[in-house]
Design a protein that fits this description.
Length: 165
């Protein structure tokens, strides 16, 4: 075999290297730092909330929304770490984390109104003191699931693009 042919075979076997722009790298690094910090704060929040039994007080709305925020931020942190490690904008980790966030928010829309003292301004259906779902969380959850499906298509197209190069 000639040297040129060997080089061509080796060149075809390499996966194309993705180079993120400097602004993207900077925003990614800042985002990882911020979401990592918020994740640590979330852990402390859960510890102090458990000690103080915040869910049993009249601050249930604050506790529930903050819990949802911290869990969602943790999923974002995992996704951002995945992007930095894999060096590709779309990945299975990103698809799964966005799906988890969407499903958690959607489930929260139905679960949060079951807690005594929970207040919401926009409901899907209510009769007397019964509230089927928090309308704001329902809308955000559905949009989150839709967004995760869009990311899944992006991941599929990225895989196809990688195999054609």
């Amino acid at each position: 075999m000639s040297e040129e042919f060997k080089d061509a075979l080796i060149e075809c076997e390499k996966e194309p290297e993705v180079k993120f722009s400097i602004p993207f790298k900077l925003i990614l690094a800042i985002s990882i730092c911020v979401t990592g910090l918020v994740t640590l704060i979330g852990i402390l929040f859960f510890i102090s909330g458990s000690i103080d039994k915040m869910w049993s007080t009249n601050q249930i709305n604050i506790f529930l929304y903050d819990s949802l925020f911290f869990i969602s931020t943790f999923c974002c942190f995992i996704s951002l770490i995945g992007i930095a490690v894999i060096k590709k904008p779309f990945s299975k980790i990103l698809v799964w984390c966005t799906m988890i966030i969407g499903v958690l928010i959607l489930l929260s829309a139905f679960m949060f109104p079951r807690f005594k003292g929970y207040n919401c301004n926009f409901t899907l259906y209510s009769k007397g003191s019964f509230i089927l779902a928090d309308g704001k969380l329902f809308m955000i959850g559905i949009l989150g699931i839709l967004f995760s499906m869009v990311i899944k298509y992006g991941f599929i197209y990225q895989k196809r693009w990688d195999t054609t190069i």
